[in-house]
Amino acid sequence: MKHKTKPVIIIGSGGHASVLLDVLLSQGIEVIAVSSNESVIERRIFSGINHLRGNEAIYDFSPDDVILVNGVGSMPNNDIRATIHRNFIDKGYRFLTVIADSAIVSEHANIEEGCQILHKAVVQPGTQLSACSIVNTAASVDHDCHIGFNNHIAPGATLSGQVITGDNVHIGTGANIIHCINIGQKTVIGAGATVTKHIEANQIVYPAKNFIQTRK
Ligand SMILES: CC(=O)SCCNC(=O)CCNC(=O)[C@H](O)C(C)(C)COP(=O)(O)OP(=O)(O)OC[C@H]1O[C@@H](n2cnc3c(N)ncnc32)[C@H](O)[C@@H]1OP(=O)(O)O
């Protein structure tokens, strides 16, 4: 499907940026530059795209003429992605919300600026996804969830209905959260963990070891 938007500058040249670029190119969106302190030649997908060496160079473009995509991935204990979002919003720039064509996003979900919903992800009705959050490949966020600012729902994670998360929460790859659970800000749910109780802020939840009982 073709999408219409201002020309894009993508910030970052790592794996997450490459996935976003792939989505943008498949949607016929014009990407005029990638901004990165690193060399971009390691990833073939960036070849032919103008390389800005660092985010200062973005200021040469007026916020009226371009829209940004935050290609910096989000991992526990790393707030670079959130800082980039806030800095550029403060300077009048806007972030594109990126939704892969294969994602299923309810018209009755509220998706804030700069969210990224990648291939095969699902966002159900009544859900609020706050700015700068990622619903990564094949993750699902069910009905009536409220997801805070700069959350990362990693690949294959499942949030059942009415889950509420604070800001800067990371739900690890393949984790499962049952319905009506609250998760405090900056908490990390480890890959593969199953969460059945509310979790306070600033916690790390590790997956449980197998609970084994002899059959009667
Ligand atoms: C497209 C993308 O790639 S997006 C990226 C998605 N990635 C994620 O979601 C990663 C989420 N992070 C995790 O799950 C992490 O392992 C955390 C945050 C739970 C724990 O990290 P740390 O505290 O640094 O734990 P650390 O790596 O030191 O591991 C300690 C031990 O626990 C084990 N362990 C840690 N996390 C897990 C896990 N999720 N499942 C099973 N075992 C685990 C480690 O193997 C290690 O075991 P060992 O002592 O026998 O070697």
Automatic annotation (TrEMBL):
The keyword Glycoprotein does not apply. It comes from the Bacteria. InterPro entries: AcTrfase_PglD-like, Hexapep_transf_CS, PglD_N, Trans_hexapeptide_repeat, Trimer_LpxA-like_sf. Residues 8-86 form the PglD N-terminal domain. Keywords: Repeat, Transferase. The keyword Mitochondrion does not apply. Belongs to the transferase hexapeptide repeat family. PANTHER family: ACETYLTRANSFERASE (PTHR43300), UDP-N-ACETYLBACILLOSAMINE N-ACETYLTRANSFERASE (PTHR43300:SF7). NCBIfam families: NeuD_NnaD. This is Sialic acid synthase. It comes from Thalassotalea eurytherma. The gene is neuD.
